[in-house]
Amino acid sequence: MPFTSVTRSHGLSINSPSSNTSASSSSSSRNVLPLHLLQSAKRRCTAIPVSPTHLPVYLQNTLYASLVREQQQQQQQQQQQRQMQRRRAITEDTAIMAHERKLPDLCLPSIWNRHDKSRHLEVENGGLDLVYTGPGKTETHAASVRSNFPIRRQCGVYYYEIKVLSKGEDGFIGIGFCSGKNGLDRLPGWDNDSWGYHGDDGHSFEESGTGKTYGPRFTTGDVIGCGINMADKTAFYTKNGTYLGIAFRSLKTSMHLYPCVGLRTPGEHVTVNFGQDPFVFDIVHYVKEQKREIYQNLKEREELGEDMGSTFDAGETMDRLVMSYLVYQGYMGTAKAALNNIKHASGRTLELSHSGTAKADDKEEEDMFKRQSIRKAILHGDIDKAIELAQTYFPECMDRENPVAHDIMFELKTQKFVEMVCEYSQQVCEQQQLRSPSLSGSSDDDQMDIDQQESTRKKRGRQSNTSSSSPYNRRNNGFTDSGLVLSDEGATNDRVLKKIMDYGQELRYEYRHNSSPEVESRLREIFSLLAYSNPSAGRMAYLVDISKREQLATKLNSVMLTLQHRPEEPPLERIYRQAVVTNRQLALMGHGKSLLLPDLKDPQWL
């Protein structure tokens, strides 16, 4: 069920009273906290945003969720910095706190604020239920409450629902939103900066005591939803999962707006769903439809520009961007095929060069093929060949005195160790697979002979490993029988494994004076692969993922271009990154349409 009666523990999650709060007039003194405690609680609530894992379902895998994760990472880093500064007795906390206050607060409403409500309301069920306790004689007895946090513009779309548990005497129930300064002795929509939909007559109220015909009435058992679309500054309502249409337009989304519910007659009782339970209305589908409309508007705008005779040729520009990207990455075969397709489809003739305009000279084209051959070697896992080609074609890339070249050489060497471990693991697995069918089809006598031979080979292999002088043997490294060190394939595999060990020792010796944490961490990572009989299925499987080759090839390609005084990245990548940064900045500013676009940095979208 979307709404449950289970009591939830939300902890102390409250806001300090607004300037027009009615908490001071509450008849229940036990709900009023001293001002310094309220401010302390406020700081604790706003310091850490809601966890992405507890977001409403329609906000998961969105740009808002990415912003929340990013903010949490920043705050964790700031906390670590403060701890380090305390240990070093450096008093720079003030500067850090000032930086924290500049971060946007992304906390979402989660409960009703029992310290920001009318005296005629009681908040129950852990902050989710509202019960009217006033006389309910006249309009002056109306009572409203605000949520603990405002609606964040960074959401793009915000939605919540209430369920009417009892309509009471007359069902004068209103649901909507208001600013943080509105009085709470009125129903939503009756005053400035307040909007509401009322159940007794089905009217919508927009900053006025006079309502307009909007939707059906609602009563006991009905579930009413209220949503705000930041992209077009509209608000809508739903009833029992049915969309009722737009209720308000041109909303004041620049101000903080709070979910607000009002009751007016005895016996009225409602409960709220801020996203802790599934919604009755399919809000996920609604958000998808809003995104589709944005994309459709962008497409129509592009077509309109073409109809008006714009001198900007988007097709030609995109062709050049893609061509320069292919040339930059060294995908010569794909680039040549693309040239032919472009000429056949549009009649445009592009050149095979980094710019796509000027024809490449012989040296530039030769460099393209050289870089392509190096990339191919890395993508096939042949790191030795890649290093040899790089040293032959681009010796400046292997200059130890150059920090950039030194770093890329370290990455190449560590990747070589990873490839050696993977090759050995694959060889052992293939041998075991070849041995399995013969074991299953052999006679008992044959099986005994094979078992005896296997036992002899295992014993010989263990003795060889134990007597080895390598510091990575079983005695010293603590590996178990599941590790690569204790292979049972005999002398051949032992020689291969010893070669891996020797190379690992060379790496450790070569970088023994390097105090960089990144170098030390990388070496620990790759050496840990020896603890797994199948590295691709262990905890360090990410190290042997095929994508690591692609990343290394791209990085080496960038280094080779940089040291040749050429652009270190293609224009397409720069434009892409600029689009990502721009969209995220607009989202932080609360630009609604930007928030509905996908997060281009999210791997789930890519």
Quick summary:
By secondary structure, this protein is of the alpha+beta class.
Describe this structure in words.
- The chain has 606 residues and is of the alpha+beta class.
- The strands form 2 sheets. A 7-stranded antiparallel sheet has the order 1-4-13-6-7-8-9, with no helix packed on it. The protein has a 7-stranded antiparallel sheet with strand order 2-3-14-5-10-11-12.
- Helix content is 45%, strand content 13%.
- Among the domains are: 23-48 and 107-284, Jelly Rolls; 394-439 and 457-563, no CATH class.
- The model is unreliable at 1-53, 90-101 and 438-483 (pLDDT under 50).
Keywords:
606 residues; alpha+beta; Jelly Rolls; seven-stranded antiparallel beta sheet; 14 strands
